[in-house]
Write a structure and sequence with these properties.
Elements: H1 13-16, E1 19-30, H2 69-81, E2 85-86, E3 89-90, E4 92-96, E5 106-110, E6 116-125, E7 128-141, E8 145-147, E9 159-161, E10 168-174, H3 181-197, E11 210-220, E12 230-235, H4 238-257, E13 265-270, E14 275-281, E15 291-292, E16 299-300, H5 303-312, H6 317-328, H7 332-338, H8 342-353, H9 358-376, H10 387-398, H11 404-417, H12 421-428, H13 436-457, E17 464-466, H14 470-479, E18 486-488, H15 493-497, E19 501-506, E20 509-514, E21 518-521, E22 527-531, H16 539-548
Parallel strand pairs: 12-13, 17-18
Antiparallel strand pairs: 1-10, 1-11, 2-6, 3-16, 4-5, 4-15, 6-7, 7-10, 8-9, 11-12, 13-14, 19-20, 21-22
Helix pairs in contact: 3-4, 6-7, 7-9, 8-9, 8-10, 10-11, 13-16
């Protein structure tokens, strides 16, 4: 959540508590089409200025607009996702105003017959669920982009990029149901999530695909009438939205407390100064002289086409959260984290489909994957660790082949190198030992290593002797961090001299083999004691006790 604006401090808390903010948002979402709403020009972002234009989007005489069918389909999908009632018949209108970024002298929008009305969106805020009303959703074209800085003569001239002119927009107007900047932040977050899940907009605020205008007023708590509102335009980040609202609420209260009156106006948020500035007096509908666009046919939506769009609408975040809880046994919190974006939810389900246990997968994704993606600045779609690879790692941990701690090391290596869990476990020797005899040898080696200082007090030397080669002995010593000598006896001379090689029984057969034994050799060079069956624990202590008695 964004930090509160410092200007709020100018109003005493007890004074601010006497007022209730009333907030409504108008959100413009650019639809994910390949071409503009009324012509065939590309919507691709980042192309050279004024290259994606034509007579239609430049408003040249004699050009005629044609509605982009895909834009209509996406707007209908967004309407259904936001629980709006789609109107079977709607109509485009001309919104007349004059500004350099509007070449026709009017904007094609919808007015008295919008595409959809009377919807709602649920949001979670402060541990409670609240339903925010949505007044309408309508289609319109975007204006061009005025550029007031970045050129040598920006202090005297402005430039215009008409690439953006004619981009398809869905304008989503909320009811004035929001009561705090934090609640507005939560509403915009929930709306963005729904639009991304429905795949109608990429909602990239940095590229201008999601912009917000905020209408705000204050009233005495308990009053039913709304106060005079102001509109803050073109807020292109969640942080700016919250700060602008905090500033405006404080400004409204300050004006009213000093006996002044709020002017209904449009204001701009000055990011550098951290304050809003008056732009123009607020227009009313009659100022725009709306009338039906004579160049465009009315829009008719049949029930069959609406049903088809409903079938093609992807699963939405609320439904997915419920399913994750019911199908995978996740907590509500875990389900909320994993459905934060559609891509993250898809990743989790891919891990589970590849055999990863749901709860374990949820834990590893939240702790290991998200942390490393955040540190590297990568989205989950670009994760170097594929879902199937993570499932393979979790299988190793679940089977007990590696410990959880080793698993995290393997995860880090997989993320950095792209190698499989099996490759890294094998290369780094991280596999847990399953052989009980090997575990006993490890315990005994560790005990003798730790007890070596006690043996040194009696001038006793610990030696290791086996029929293995020198490299094998060295690897054994390194593996168990031994600090005493190991003797290689591949010809079995010492082993046979001490009687550690004798007949053994195995599966009903007798053969000559090496018997793992402990020999205590006294100061006279004679064998003082032999342990043929050494326990896995406490053996070093009993050998030390025998040394003391020599």
């Amino acid at each position: 959540m964004a930090r509160a604006t410092s200007a709020i401090a100018r109003v005493a808390p007890e004074v601010a508590a006497a007022y209730e903010p009333v907030i409504g948002l108008e959100v413009h979402a650019q639809l994910k089409t390949a071409t503009k709403i009324f012509c065939a020009c590309s919507t691709r972002f980042g192309d050279p200025p004024n290259t994606n234009t034509c007579p239609v989007c430049l408003g040249l005489p004699g050009s005629l607009p044609v509605l982009n069918k895909r834009a209509l389909e996406l707007a209908l999908r967004a309407s259904l996702a936001l629980n709006l009632r789609v109107q079977q018949d709607s109509r485009f209108a001309r919104k007349n105003y004059f500004y350099p970024d509007l070449p026709k002298g009017y904007q094609i929008s919808m007015y008295e017959l919008p595409l959809a009305t009377h919807g709602w969106l649920e949001l979670e805020h402060d541990g409670a669920t609240k339903k925010i009303g949505i007044t309408r959703l309508h289609l319109e074209e975007d204006a061009a982009k005025n550029i007031h800085e970045g050129f040598p003569d920006s202090d005297r001239n402005s430039y215009i990029d008409y690439n953006r002119c004619g981009m398809p927009l869905a304008e989503i107007v909320s009811e004035p149901d929001l009561r705090s900047p934090a609640e507005a932040y939560a509403y915009l977050s929930a709306l963005k999530q729904v639009l991304e899940y429905a795949d109608v907009s990429d909602c990239n605020m940095e590229e201008g695909s999601l912009r917000c205008d905020a209408n705000v007023s204050v009233r005495r708590r308990g009053d039913q009438r709304f106060g005079t509102k102001t509109e803050v335009k073109n807020l292109n980040s969640f942080r700016y939205l919250q700060r602008a609202l905090e500033y405006e609420i404080e400004r409204h209260i300050s004006v009213l407390e000093s006996g002044g009156r709020i002017s209904q106006e449009t204001r701009l948020w000055n990011v550098a100064e951290g304050r809003s500035e008056s732009m123009r007096s607020k227009e009313f509908a009659h100022d725009y002289r709306y009338f039906p666009d004579p160049d465009l046919l009315p829009v008719h939506v049949s029930m069959s086409s609406l049903a088809e769009i409903q079938r093609d609408t992807p699963e939405l975040p609320a439904a997915r959260r419920r399913r994750f809880v019911q199908e995978h046994g996740l907590s509500a919190y875990d389900a909320g984290v994993l459905t934060a974006t559609r891509a993250l939810g898809d990743y989790f389900e891919a891990v589970v489909s590849a055999g990863g246990p749901p709860k374990t997968a949820a834990s590893w994704i939240q702790t290991e994957l998200l942390r490393r993606l955040n540190d590297s600045g990568q989205p989950v779609e670009a994760s170097p660790l594929a879902p199937k690879a993570l499932a393979g790692l979790l299988a190793q941990v679940e089977a007990g082949n590696i410990t959880g701690a080793s698993g995290k090391k393997v995860f880090a290596a997989m993320f950095e190198t792209g190698k499989s869990a099996e490759e890294i476990v094998s290369a780094q020797g991280l596999a847990q030992i399953q052989d009980t005899a090997e575990i006993e040898r490890m315990c005994q080696a560790s005990e003798f290593r730790d007890a070596k200082p006690q043996f040194d007090k009696f001038s006793a030397v610990i030696l290791g002797c086996s029929g293995d080669s020198v490299p094998t002995q060295a690897k054994f010593a390194a593996k168990y961090n031994l600090n005493f000598p190991l003797l290689s006896d591949p010809e079995f001379k010492a082993i046979e001299a001490y009687g550690a090689r004798r007949m053994k029984q195995f599966l009903g057969k007798s053969f000559l083999g090496i018997v793992r034994s402990t020999f205590l050799i006294g100061p006279d060079g004679r064998i003082a004691k032999i342990w043929d069956k050494a326990p896995s624990k406490g053996h070093a202590a009993e050998v030390l006790e025998a040394v003391k008695q020599l």
